[in-house]
Amino acid sequence: MSANLDLVRSIYADWERGDYTSTDWADPDIEFAFVDGPDPQSWKGISGMARGWGEFQSMWARGFHGDPIEFRELTDEYVLVTVEFVGRAKGSDMDLSQVATQQATVLRIRDGKVVRLALYWDRDRALADLGLEE
User: Fold this and answer.
1) Cα→Cα distances 1→9, 40, 71, 76, Å
2) pLDDT tens digits, residue range 21-68?
3) For 84-108, how does the pLDDT look when each residue is reduced to its tens digit (9 = 90+)?
4) Can you list the domains of the chain with their CATH numbers?
5) Are 32 and 45 in contact (CB under 8 A)?
């Protein structure tokens, strides 16, 4: 297994325990983005990532998280994680477990640090953006 895949698996291991506090894996100028979905936008830097994630988390009655299904190294810089988003929206009470789609996270890694973390509601769009339609 590659160092990049090991890094991504370790990030997800923390997240699966509900621990989002560690950022030593992130480049100081990381780009954090929700590429598609209900509110596409992006933030720069670790503080921007924390702000964006906090804003997003505040929309959910239960903690939103992504359960990893598959980790796939695409190139020496890109790792794709197929995930199933879990959470219940405030207000509408929409339960994401009722949505029959697969989502994805694409991480771009340089020199052992994640320089871009992009969350996709549509896994196929993530693959298309990377030129890897299946």
Assistant:
1) 11, 32, 11, 12
2) 899 999 999 999 999 987 899 999 999 999 998 888 787 776 677 789
3) 877 777 777 677 666 666 889 999 9
4) 3-129 (3.10.450.50)
5) no
Residue 105: how many other CB atoms lie within 10 Å: 22
Structure-token pair, residue 11? 């990030």
Residue for token digits 């699966």? 16
CA–CA separation, 124 and 116 (whole Å) = 19
Q: How many C-beta neighbours within 10 Å does residue 101 have?
A: 11
Residue that has been written with the tokens 């590429």 in this structure: 35
The tokens of 29 are what?
């100028």
Q: Tokens standing for 85?
A: 């988003």
C-alpha to C-alpha distance for 51 and 62, rounded to whole angstroms = 18
Q: Which three-class secondary structure state does DSSP give residue 23?
A: coil
Q: Residue 129: count other Cβ atoms within 10 Å of its Cβ.
A: 16
